[in-house]
Amino acid sequence: MTLLFALAACTFGPGSPYTRVGSASLQASFEPGARSLGEGLVVTDLGFRYSVSELTVSAESVALQRLEGADGVDFDPANPPDGYTLCHGGHCHAEDGSLVDYGDIIVELSGGAATLSDIAVWQLPSLDLIESTALSLGEPEPSLLPEGDLSRLSVQVSSARIRGQFQSEDGTANLPFDLEIDGNTIGADITLSVGRGAPPDIDLEIAWVVDGTLLDGIDAAALSVSPPPEGLSSALVDPVSDHLWTNPLAVEILESP
Amino acid sequence: MSALLRYTSLFTLAVACNGGKDSAEEEDPSEHACEHISEAGTSVTASSDPASAPSISVGEEPYTISLVSGEAGYISATVDADTPALLFVGEADVVTSLQHDGAEETLPAPAPNELCPDDIPEHFDLDLHAGTWVIGLGPVGITDVWLMLASAEGHAH
Predict the structure, then answer these.
(1) Distance CA B95, CA B98 (A)
(2) Least-confidence region, from A42-46, A108-112, A163-167
(3) Mutate to test the interface with A, among B1, B69, B157 (most CBs of A within 10 A)
(4) Rounded to an integer, what distance in angstroms lies between the CA atom of residue B44 and that of residue A56?
(5) Partner-chain contact A35 B97, CB within 8 Å
(6) Cβ-nearest to A47 among B1, B91, B139
(7) A254/B125 Cβ within 8 A
(8) ipTM of this complex > 0.85?
(9) End-to-end CA distance of chain B
(10) What pLDDT is recorded for position A96?
């Protein structure tokens, strides 16, 4: 009995790691969904057809993060802060129409005082979204999570490459593009409390789906008639980048059996 | 945890938090939409011209909209007074434009219905001012789409 209490004391001592991350999986894919016309063709909101032959991202890392320095931040989703109209489901609607996660808003409201610190990190290889890469990431470093609340999972991407072409309806005219897009951080708010009563072992399932809106808003006919002086691909980088990085990351935290 | 279990848990929580109030008055429209996703509801054929868009109502009824092949189709809703509304859609990336009395409006960013994200991958928070609103659907590669335009009354944030 004494030994049992001693073991329990070691397990639940202050500052001890209470939760082990056993494994994580990452599924990254390009899924045009309702925009798919079949045979690899996708339609934009303006009615132009395109296909994508390559969509790869050079990923660097995935990190479970803790929000620190946010104690004085007054953020109540029921009363959206200035610049936001509505908050629900972990994000607020900004006045420019974008969705912003609660974590990013708290960092913004803190005026720089709040930061997201990496607590556990996985290193990542490149991801091929056309081949629908499914990766088993194994354990992070470290795999034992210290006590406290984790509020965010972030994927750091160093660059992306998208190759494809606009295609006329009869298939006779093509407008190829080859885009090198600067990296970004894709994140999702999570709720994971590590401490007494927390599950001892968890697994993570992470998914990033790029949808068929990638080339929305681009007038391929106008670009065909009046090619931009900087070249088609250069002209497409910014709008495609905007669409690419707004695809949300989905995270499931599962208690290990 | 499966999506069904998540939905069931949230639904149970929502019921538990209802405190015995009249469910017809208090039901969250997100919950209502999830409950009716399997119903085809009223069939409406979208028009290819915004000016002749068939009308749907802000309410609790689901619709199945037949889309225009190869191009954008349109439906409309007319409201007499300012009406916060939620547009639930059974497929992502189908809603492509919004007009109010003929003027283009910015389409707000969509988000999944948190209670049944697999069934309703998108909903739009719409602040409908009095007048006629035209909703653009497509062009897409599917032939029809389920949707519900519900009043935001009772929507839990």
Answers:
(1) 8
(2) A108-112
(3) B157
(4) 40
(5) no
(6) B139
(7) no
(8) no
(9) 23
(10) 76
Total count of residues recorded for chain A: 257
CB contact under 8 A, B141 and A35: yes
Strand order in the sheet with B122-128: B42-45, B63-66, B144-151, B83-89, B122-128
Give the H or E element holding residue A241.
helix A232-245
pLDDT tens-digit readout, A14-28: 445 589 999 999 999
A118/A47 Cα distance (integer angstroms): 43
Amino acid identity of residue B38, one-letter, is S
Least confident of A145-159, B11-25, B141-155: B11-25
Question: Which of B96, B114, B137, B146 best probes binding to A when mutated, by most A CB atoms within 10 angstroms?
Answer: B96
Consecutive H or E run containing A192: strand A174-194
To which residue do tokens 């499931």 refer? Answer: A252
The answer to whether B1 contacts A252, with C-beta atoms less than 8 Å apart, is yes
Q: Per DSSP, which regions of B35-141 are E strands?
A: 42-45, 63-66, 73-79, 83-89, 95-100, 103-105, 122-128, 131-137
**Distance between CA B82 and CA B104 in Å, rounded?**
18
Give yes or no for a contact between A26 and A135, defined as CB atoms under 8 angstroms apart: yes
B157–A45: do the CB atoms touch at under 8 Å?
A: no
3-state secondary structure A130-185: CCCCEEECCCCECCEECCEEEEEEEEEEEEEEEEEEEECCCCCCEEEEEEEEEEEE
Place of tokens 């470093």: A141
* Digit-coded pLDDT (tens) for A192-216: 999 888 889 999 999 999 999 999 9
**Which whole number is the average pLDDT over A45-49?**
95
Position with higher pLDDT, B152 vs A45: A45
Instruction: Establish whether the linkage from the previous residue to A80 is cis, with ω within 30° of 0.
Output: no
